[in-house]
Amino acid sequence: MEILEVLEQKVKSLFSSENSGHDIYHLKRVLNIALHLQKTEGGDKMVIAVSALLHDVHRLIQLQTGKYCSPKDSLPKVKEILGAVDLPEEKVEKILKCIEFHEEYGFSKDGRTVTDIETLILQDADRLDAIGAVGIGRCFTYCAVNNIPMWVPGVPLVSEDYKHHKHDPSTIHHFYNKLLRLKDDMNTKTAKKMALDRHNFMELFVKHFFAEWEGKK
Fold first, then answer.
1. Residues 58-73 pLDDT 10s
2. Distance separating alpha carbons of residues 162 and 177, to the nearest angstrom
């Protein structure tokens, strides 16, 4: 797809300095996962693909400003990037919706509100890349960049209300507050199946982590 090639080059340049686990490789993995889900679950292939490539523009803005930026606040920048390609306005609006709502979580205070398959697939693809072996690596990378320690004993593992914009006390706390909840927060049947093995791997990792921390292994 010529449109994707143009956008990938733009994104690759924009995200060249991103080092928190939301880099071009993350975007391309999410793209590949999303297209894999689309084959079974349906939806507009172009909308899903473009949304996957551009879903983390808000992370780029955060990196530049040092302040939290929601996906919704990134939409003007996303529109600017989309100006480089010729897409029907209808598809552009669907892409913007996917990006705006891709960080809705069933375990957050506001829960999920969207039902269109394109947004649900983007949510699933992004979450699948947050768990399993790659997810573990990304989590420790993100926390290291943000000076978050590996583990802080004595602090309750799970907060009552998950807040996406707030950092967890430690990397392991993030596993319990978010990553280990994602398996049950997948939308599509295909993603649910893919999430199971990744989730089990994370559970094994956490079990080993605590055993090693306490000097039992």
1. 999 988 888 889 999 9
2. 7
